[in-house]
Specification:
Number of helices: 2
Order of helices and strands: HEEEEEEEEEEEEEEEH
Helix content: 10-25%
Largest sheet: 4 strands, antiparallel
Strand content: 25-35%
Shape: elongated
Structural class: alpha+beta
């Protein structure tokens, strides 16, 4: 009897214990048998991370989006037997967008091509093979207009210069200000100098701060006018290498004033006081008389020399007269 009573008591206790442990066992079985847990809870709004999932291999899925945030490719880790329709909001490994367009994940080279266009593409390269996955169509990034506002400058002589700056460099369009005046002249980075009619020039045309110079009125007291070009619009860059101009300023144009007319009055010859070494007698003395050579520099009294020469000439004349009379009487 006592053995039967003890057995019955043990059976009742076991049944009661089983009833108490049944809910916990059921819950434990349910946890171990359900799908892998994701990093994002099932509750809450996950629309910011939802998109078009594509399996790119080796337990990797790319969630492709292209909404207000721009094109995005979220690279997440999934089971290797993942198939379309399975949970994809799992652990994030990397993210591609307009700021980060390339990355490498587990030997996969990932590139977001055309990130600023309306039709970007995710390119995946692995083991020498490439595959492309187009993202949903979105909005392209607007291209900025890289031309500044017009800066108007009065340059005188009835002319105006319109200065602009673009990615191609400075530009100055000089034109008449009067209605109906069709004359104009354009200067730019590759043609920085104007014609010969006026002084028009872009100084430092390939530099960081080009300057427009002009001089349309003559006169030494009129200075050269100068004006800076407007700045490039925000987000724009120069499309050429910036080179500062080291050349000197241009030389002034030659003067057109005619030279002074030379006078027709002959210059008065200067008296020769040196270099004369011989006194040449004139008249009858030249017939055969020889006079001693005397340098002017050696004589202190030129009057005495002249008197001696005259006396010799008189004597010669008298001798010639006497010779003729003697011949006539003979």
């Amino acid at each position: 009897m006592r053995s039967a009573l003890a057995l019955r008591t043990s059976l009742v206790t076991a049944v009661a214990a089983g009833m108490l442990l049944a809910p916990a066992a059921t819950a434990a079985f349910a946890v171990t048998s359900q799908a892998p847990t994701t990093t994002f809870a099932a509750t809450g709004d996950n629309s910011r991370y939802e998109g078009q999932p594509v399996y790119i291999g080796e337990g990797l899925v790319a969630v492709l989006r292209n909404k207000a945030e721009g094109p995005e490719a979220w690279i997440r880790a999934v089971p290797k037997d993942w198939k379309q329709g399975d949970e994809y909001l799992t652990r994030v490994l990397s993210l591609l967008n307009r700021k980060q367009t390339t990355t490498t994940v587990d030997g996969h080279r990932l590139e977001l091509l055309g990130a600023t266009t309306a039709n970007p593409v995710l390119k995946v390269t692995h083991a020498g093979t490439s595959r492309s996955y187009p993202l949903p169509k979105g909005e392209a990034v607007p291209t900025p207009t890289c031309v500044s506002d017009v800066k108007e400058v009065q340059v005188g002589a009835g002319m105006i210069a319109d200065l602009t700056m673009s990615s191609k460099g400075p530009k100055a369009v000089v034109h008449g200000s009067a209605p109906g005046d069709t004359w104009s002249e354009t200067l730019d980075r590759t043609h920085p100098k104007g014609g010969d009619a006026f002084y028009l020039r872009i100084v430092n045309p390939s530099g960081a701060k080009p300057v427009f110079e002009w001089k349309t009125q003559g006169g030494e007291g009129v200075p050269v006018g100068k004006a800076s070009f407007p700045a490039l619009p925000k987000g724009c860059e120069l499309g050429y290498e910036v080179v500062e101009d080291q050349s000197p300023a241009p030389a002034p144009k030659p003067s057109t004033t005619p030279a002074t007319t030379p006078t027709a009055t002959p210059a008065t010859p200067k008296a020769q006081t040196a270099g004369q070494t011989r006194v040449v007698p004139q008249g009858p003395v030249a017939a055969g008389a020889e006079l001693p050579v005397q340098s002017v520099a050696d004589s202190d009294d030129t009057t005495t020399l002249a008197a001696g020469a005259g006396l010799v000439a008189i004597c010669a004349a008298l001798g010639a007269t006497l010779l003729r009379r003697r011949r006539n009487h003979g």
